[in-house]
Design brief:
The protein has 242 residues and is an alpha/beta fold. The protein folds into 2 domains: 17-80; 93-239, 3-Layer(aba) Sandwich (Phosphatidylinositol Transfer Protein Sec14p), CATH 3.40.525.10. The chain has helices spanning 17-40, 49-58, 63-80, 92-96, 125-143, 169-181, 197-206, 212-215, 230-234, and strands at 100-105, 111-116, 153-158, 187-193, 218-221. It has a 5-stranded mixed beta sheet with strand order 1-2-3-4-5, covered by helices on one side. Helix 1 runs parallel beside helix 3 (63-80). The chain is globular, with a radius of gyration of 18 Å. This is CRAL-TRIO domain-containing protein.
Length: 242
Amino acid sequence: MEGHVLTHHHQEHELDSKQVGMMKLLKDELGPGVDKALRECGETGGLSDQTLKRWLAARKWDVGVAKRDVQSHVEWRQKMTPKGRIDLSKIQASIDEEKGFLQGFDRLGHPVALVRAQRHVPKGYYTMERFCCYSMDAVERLGSRNPTWDGKLNVVLILTGMTVANYDLAGLRAVFDMLQNHYPERLYRMYLYDAPMIFLGLWKLVSPFVDPVTRQKVVFLSPHQLKGSLLEQEVPPAFLPP
């Protein structure tokens, strides 16, 4: 089921001529080889204008830094998905937990990813890294169905019932490392719903390593705050916890 997409959803700020020039410069410096490598590894858009803009915006429009980080991302992607997609045998146990769902679109046209922490079993940093890559590829496929999609997603992490068995410092670090190092400017908002004390302690350990811009997109929300909240305004009720 997909949510109704508002026709007046937020539009990105128009780029000025200097920024357009920086995008062209970055694309020229990276060259067609990087574009081809990204496509072969599963990022079908390659060095699209959206991709170039995201990397530059996340790196404060520093072409040199953006070039370095895109090249690093390509090397990572070639190791992660040499055949264009994740080897499912390496993440099948995570898939079988049925902890993550793509719900459709929110009212602003972003894909909605809902994750139930209570079903998560820690398996280490690199398994979480692979699972995130697999999930982001799925987000990309869903988002491409919306012609006005800005490339971002809304994440709702349901923390109800989380216990020490679900505690995963390495896994949470992997999620935010992925967002910062490989999927810049992809997160619209992340809602942390019904967080128990054990998660608050985990967040205290991880949050200092999260980029301040990303950290501002993280919203804690308790069940009694749900009614009338920003989450309820953005995401169709059928997608939300009962």
